[in-house]
Fold:
Amino acid sequence: MRLKKLILGLSIIIVTFMLLSIFESTHGTLAGDQDKTVDYEKAIQGCQEALKVYTLDDSPVQYAAIQCHLVIAYHILTELKDKAINCAKAIQAYQEALRVYTPEDFLIQYTRTQINLGKVYRIVAEVLVEVPIDIIPQSCPNPLNVKGKGVLTVAILGTEDFDVTEVDPVTVELINVSPLRWALENVATPYKPKVLVKTVKIRLDKSWGKRQSPSLPATDPWWLFKEALKDRGNWKGLLFGEKEQVICLKKIEDAERTVAVYPKGRLEISQNVLPFNLILQKFGNCPISGDNVYRITELQINNESGDTGELDYVKDYFAKAQFIKMSDAEKLSRPSFEKEDANILIGKELSTDRNTLGPDGYLDLTLKFDAQEIVAALGAVSDGDVLFIPLTGELLDGTQIIGVDVIIIIKKGN
Structure:
């Protein structure tokens, strides 16, 4: 086995050199598109052979590096043939690499991989027709039991603007697996995000508690708090909870005052002036002249009232002695910094904000895939993994389509 790994280690270097050489040749005139396609397909075969030995469990660093080599070939093949299919394969390979390249352990590789993944998504956004799909229609979340038998149902959803009868079902693939059969029926409604945040207004409730005669001039922290909320740098769009992806958002006007948030993502507002939901007895060494409790009681999104059930607080460290009165003994015995509600998250988590809607009156194209073929195509997975699964195909006129949905891996019996 060691000899085999050594040989394959050398083959990875050769494959990398081949990819770089082929990349340089794409800018010359000696090789035609057909020759380039053959060369890249050979490079892909070499990487896939190497992955048979360098597995995720035994050799994670080499595994991730090979996945990134695969992407080089898939990415350039998008310019030569089967744009949708090769985009889907590139996205899948990047996701495999990101299982190793975490920001904690491989920050540079993680950043580079996310940037390159964004380039693939840009191709998807600019060139391909994106169609709404629903894996396991009306299910939320979408569980895939790796030991399950039978079929996996996926629906391409029709809308007022998209007629599924224009799809050529023979060309459809889910991560390179063809369907066993298909049918036209009305099964689900496309997911439509409820929140595309442009502006958020916050209403705070009134104060309570006793007012004391100050020995120092009283201060009102509201003004500092208000300035922190107005600071554009404290507003940030987040994607998919902990499963971050690079998404290409359309350039917006008035970027200094407007925050772009992906419809399926969340909005985070940060501040460290004071804790939310804590009765403030002082601010620094000064008594408080204004409100002494800060909490969010109402959301307004694009001037419409929002659901505060979609709001969460994120804790951060505060020096609590700056906000409540403590004796000298308490100051010595308690931690210098304690976690309190600091930041605001607006929007639902991905796992609870998916499509569970039933039929909508528009015809859908449902496809049945062999569940075990899908499991085999996914490769090594872990219980609880959240994966983005691409579906590719063509319309009857040859236009390439792509759709993406989420599954959650379940390994029963572990």
Observations:
- Residues 1-31, 193-200, 241-246 have pLDDT under 50 and may be disordered.
